Structure formats: C-alpha cells, structure tokens
Amino acid sequence: MKLTNSKIIRRGALKPSVVPDGFALVVDTREQRPLFVDGPGDMDVITDTLHYGDYTIRGFENIFAIERKKMSDFYSYIGKQRDLTIRKMRCFREMVSSGGFVGLVVEASESDVLAGYLMSRVSPETARQALVSFEIRYGVHVYYSKSRNDIARWILDRAIKFYRVMRESTI
Questions:
Q1: C-alpha distances in angstroms, 13 versus 9, 10, 146, 150?
Q2: Is 5 exposed, middle or buried (0-12, 13-18, 19+ CB in 10 A)?
Q3: Cα–Cα distance measured from residue 59 to residue 34, given in angstroms and rounded to the nearest whole number
Q4: Strands 64-70 and 101-107: what pairing?
Q5: What is the longest distance spanned by two Cα atoms in the chain?
Q6: Rounded to the nearest 10 degrees, what angle do helices 71-78 and 124-136 cross at?
Q7: Helical packing angle, 71-78 and 82-97, nearest 10°
Q8: Could you tell me the domains of the chain?
Q9: How far apart are CA 98 and CA 171, in angstroms?
Q10: How much of the chain, in percent, has pLDDT values that exceed 90?
C-alpha cells in the first residue's frame, strides 16, 4: 500500500511540505505562542495536554516529542528547573530507545545561547555542557534558530518524516 499525499504546505523558498493523509500535529495546551494554530493549509492541528514536549503527532504521543524553549526558558530549564529537566530527559531517552524521536528547539542562535543569558546565574559553559549531554546522553536532537518560520519548518519536516517512516513499517 502506497501512502498518498493529500495536503501541500508552502513555507519560504524551499519545496513545500507534503502532508500525508491521516497526519495530525498535536500542540500542547500550555504552549504560550504556538507555531501552528489552525494548521497551515489543510493540515490538522489538535490542541491537547501533552505529557512530553510541546509538539507531537496524533497516535505517536509516546514516541515523538519536540520541546520548544525561548532563551530565558532554556536557561531556567537547565538552572532552576534542573531536577525536573533531568527527569524529563530520562523519559526522552526511553522514547528514543523505543525507536522514537525527541527534539529540542531553542529560539535563539547557537552563538547567542553559548554567550550566556544576562538574567541567569547559569554560566555559558554549563549551557554548553547541558546541550552536549542532551544530545549524547539522552539522544535529543537540538536545533537553534531565531526564525519562527524556520523552527516551524524544522518541526514539521521531522514530524512528517517520522509519521511516514512509522506508517511504512506497518504496511
């Protein structure tokens, strides 16, 4: 059985995203400024309370998660909220070990993140080591960008590819 593509979403100068039939993006209800509200094009976007991350795919909530942080949130994530973050990262590692995908998007350039955050006592070196740990110890893919459009594209590309790969394995 071949998957059909029903919806096309255009973003920037890159080829448009082709959204497969049955695909629905889920956005956490606590997301302050969601990247996807009504869904670009005809894509289904569902708002729900998520246990893991800020974005996932309907039907794959336990093995696909993308967490999005602004710079200030990221520094709290690795500072004041460190214990909670470690517990969350352990859950993410389990998701990845089960064949899943976890991403962390930081709404800033990598150089800005590594330069430090004025309103935080967390050092830039601690931030760098936390990011390395997220990737190596927990298997979390990290992406940096100041552009909400680029972040939306990164999330959507990975969600669609993951959905297709998982659907292929059930055919």
A1: 12, 8, 17, 11
A2: middle
A3: 20
A4: parallel
A5: 55
A6: 80
A7: 90
A8: 23-168 (3.40.50.10130)
A9: 19
A10: 62
Closest C-alpha to 102, from 89, 86, 87, 83: 89
How is 13-73 classified by DSSP, letter by letter? TSPPEEEETT-EEEEETT-SS-S-SS-STT-EEEEE--SSSSEEETT-TTTEEEEEEEHHH
- Give this prediction's pTM: 0.86
Residue 31's pLDDT band (boundaries 50, 70, 90)?
confident
| pLDDT, position 1 | 39
Q: 17-20 and 5-9: which strand pairing?
A: antiparallel
Query: Range with the lowest mean pLDDT among 25-29, 60-64, 107-111, 167-171?
Result: 167-171
| Strands 24-28 and 55-57, sheet pairing | antiparallel
Q: What is the pLDDT of residue 9?
A: 55
Query: Would you state the pLDDT for residue 121?
Result: 82
pLDDT at residue 125 above 80?
yes
- What is the rounded CA–CA span in Å between residue 121 and residue 6? 49
